[in-house]
Design a protein that fits this description.
The protein is mostly helical. It has helices at about 5-15, 20-30, 40-65, 70-90.
Length: about 100
């Protein structure tokens, strides 16, 4: 039994986890960690960062072969792209 405010809170938490209130309560009662689903926006940000990580690895190899100056502009571009993705994702999880 829950008061109305507690039930609304549980509904919100269950919805974020992609579960019914009953399933959310069951998992919580069984000492399972109940986590929110990854939003499509966050999933896209993670994929974007993964792609950038591949570029960074390639650039590290290039720097060892031909030197830092040759890939400096590419580094600056990647830093800007990472900053943009982080700024896009940050508001999605600001309330945690």
């Amino acid at each position: 039994m829950f008061c109305e405010n507690d039930f609304i809170y549980l509904q919100s938490k269950a919805a974020k986890a992609g579960l019914s209130v009953g399933e959310y309560c069951h998992q919580a009662a069984m000492d399972n960690t109940v986590r929110e689903m990854v939003s499509p926006e966050l999933a896209k940000g993670i994929r974007d960062l993964s792609g950038i990580a591949n570029n960074v690895n390639q650039m590290a190899h290039q720097m060892h072969v031909i030197g830092l100056d040759a890939v400096k502009e590419e580094c600056i571009g990647i830093i800007a792209a990472i900053s943009e993705i982080i700024n896009r994702i940050k508001p999605l999880h600001h309330d945690r």
